[in-house]
Structure formats: structure tokens, C-alpha cells
TrEMBL record:
Gene3D superfamilies: 2,3-Dihydroxybiphenyl 1,2-Dioxygenase, domain 1, 3.10.450.50. Residues 42-186 form the VOC domain. The keyword Ligase does not apply. Residues 1-32 form the signal peptide. The keyword Metal-binding applies. This is VOC domain-containing protein.
């Protein structure tokens, strides 16, 4: 590794191509610092204990419309495991069912045979008390449906009038075994979003349905998308570039380089600005474009008018719903 860095430093001193490599390495180090954590990508599932697994699964499937997928057990638990996880020594085997709850985390349901633990649910203000919130597009209809199924609704839906959660409507309901859960809806967004925060809370309403359409296999349209991609990387005016970014890239686009990964339009826009700032006279030009179904390949070069091929490489695109969903960047290595 040390010898590689020495070679890179020599290139920086002797070639304009190294300036681009240095920028890439700089961005990579920024990403590495930002990812100095356990590497958590998201919430996989939420686990809850129930007194009767079959009845709970019936409620989740028949009333809430979820789909049971996998099952483990019954699994006998040894004394050491029980001690480590604070389980009563006399409690029996555990059976676990994983349930797909739509767009988001799954629900992992546990039933302990001959359960010797507390059979009382925690009160709302008890430490460790929790609830699961489910997003719905129309909370009025959702409440009406739950009422028709005999589900206990705790109060009336309430819409937040102001503050960060302005526009959010929510209401709690109770499962047949007494757990508190929630319905929530904010089809027009929440108040905090109007301030254009750097980070937006994830929600199903913003989720992108990732599937190809017949247009995604149109080679002419895909060539146009690639051409607009190049325009974005050469555009110096921020307003024009942002407009093109939204037209060409999916909101959760992922750009994968050998040194780093950029997530979303903002990350890519920031990288473009850094690249243009470091190389104000440079421009990307296309050498060739090829398409295959919803995959496109662009061979490009980057340089000035006097020296147009300082750096060259290839971009590989995955196009879904008429926009670039994935962008893989390959930079040619020069010795």
C-alpha cells in the first residue's frame, strides 16, 4: 500500500491526470470518515413477543394484510443462553415467525412455550415500552377498516398543526393481545421538509418502486439519457444542473466508483462541483455510447481544449422508470 501511495504522489507532481485522481481520493477519504460507524444500512426488522403465535400471525395477515414468510423453531434454549438474555430458567422453547409488513422493516414475532416471564405488557411510560407505526395513504379509511374488524382504536386521529411534524396525522390502536401500535399518514409531507434539510426522514410515501418499463428498453431514449448525463457533468450553472439532475437521475441514485460510493442526487452534485472547481477548463466528451436492454455504456474522456484526453474511462448505467438508478464509474489507470 505504501508503494502505491508513493506512485500516486509522483503522478500528482507530473501530470494533470493525477489532479483528477487526487480529487477522487479526497472524496473517498471524506466518505470513509463519514462511514466511521458500524456500517448500519437500515432497519431489517422489529421483534415483538406474543402470548399466542398463531393468533398474532392471523391478526397480522387477516386484519393488517401482511404476509408471513419464514419460521424457526420450536428452538430449545440452553441455560447459558437464558442467563445471557435474562430469560426465566423455566421458560420453554421459542418459535419465531418473520412477517413481511409491506414497504419497510419486517416484523419478527416470538412465542415462548411455557413462558415463565412477565405476562403483563409494559405501560406506555415504562422503560422499554415501544410501539410500531404503520404508514397509510388514507388514515380515515384505515381507521374505518380496523373498526369493522373489531380493533380497538385509542382515541381519534389527530393532525399536528405546527412544528416539525405539521401535516402528520396519527392514531394508536391495540392488538388483540394488548400491544399498542400506530397508524400514521402525511401525504403532503411534514413541516420540517419545507426548510430543505440536509437529511430527510425515510418514509414509504417517498419510496421508489424499482421496476423497468417498456421505455427502459428503448435504445434511442437511453442514449438521450446518457447524453443528458454528460450535460450534467459539464454544466457550470447550478440551477440548470439541479434541474437536469432531477430529470436524469432517480432520487436515490447510487454512484459506485473504485474509491467511494455516492448516495443520492445531492452527493453526486457535490462531487461534480468539486470536480469542476479543481478542473475549471476541463470538459467531458463522449467517445461512444452502447445500449443493451435497460443497460447503457458510455466511453468518455476528460480534459481541456488543448489536451482533451487527460483522463478516460467508462460509465455503466442501469436505467429504471426512465431514470438512471445505478451508475458504475471505471477510470482508466495510467502508469
Amino acid at each position: 500500500m505504501k508503494s502505491t501511495h508513493k506512485k500516486s504522489n509522483k503522478k500528482v507532481q507530473t501530470s494533470a491526470a493525477a489532479m483528477l485522481n487526487l480529487l477522487i481520493l479526497f472524496s473517498a477519504s471524506e466518505k470513509a470518515a463519514a462511514q466511521n460507524n458500524p456500517g448500519i444500512v437500515g432497519i431489517d426488522h422489529v421483534g415483538i413477543n406474543v402470548p399466542d403465535l398463531n393468533k398474532a400471525v392471523t391478526f397480522f395477515s387477516d386484519v393488517l394484510g401482511f404476509t408471513p414468510v419464514t419460521q424457526l423453531g420450536p428452538i430449545p434454549l440452553d441455560a447459558e443462553w437464558k442467563k445471557l438474555n435474562h430469560i426465566n430458567p423455566a421458560t420453554g422453547a421459542v418459535t419465531i415467525k418473520m412477517i413481511n409488513a409491506g414497504n419497510g422493516a419486517s416484523i419478527e414475532v416470538f412465542e415462548y412455550a411455557d413462558n415463565k416471564g412477565s405476562l403483563n405488557l409494559p405501560n406506555t411510560d415504562d422503560i422499554g415500552a415501544s410501539h410500531i407505526a404503520f404508514y397509510v395513504n388514507d388514515i380515515t379509511k384505515a381507521v374505518k377498516f380496523l373498526n369493522s374488524k373489531g380493533v380497538k382504536i385509542l382515541g381519534e386521529p389527530f393532525t399536528m398543526p405546527s412544528g416539525d411534524t405539521a401535516g402528520e396525522t396519527w392514531v394508536y390502536f391495540e392488538t388483540p393481545w394488548g400491544s399498542k401500535m400506530e397508524l400514521v399518514s402525511y401525504p403532503n409531507g411534514k413541516g420540517y421538509e419545507k426548510a430543505n434539510p440536509k437529511t430527510i426522514l425515510w418514509s414509504p410515501k417517498n419510496a421508489v418502486v424499482r421496476k423497468t418499463t417498456p421505455d427502459d428498453f428503448d435504445s434511442k431514449k437511453n442514449i438521450t439519457i446518457v447524453e443528458n448525463h454528460l450535460k450534467i457533468w459539464n454544466e457550470k450553472e447550478e440551477a440548470k444542473r439541479k434541474t437536469l439532475l432531477k430529470q436524469v437521475y432517480a432520487s436515490d441514485v447510487e454512484m459506485v466508483d473504485r474509491h467511494f460510493i455516492a448516495q443520492g442526487i445531492n452527493d453526486i452534485s457535490k462531487f461534480i462541483v468539486e470536480l469542476q472547481t479543481k478542473n475549471p477548463e476541463f470538459k467531458f466528451t463522449a467517445k461512444s455510447v452502447e445500449t443493451n436492454h435497460n443497460i447503457a455504456r458510455l466511453y468518455w474522456q476528460f480534459g481541456s481544449k488543448e489536451k482533451p484526453i487527460v483522463v478516460s474511462g467508462m460509465d455503466l448505467f442501469v436505467i429504471e422508470n426512465g431514470k438512471i438508478q445505478k451508475l458504475y464509474v471505471f477510470v482508466d489507470q495510467k502508469e
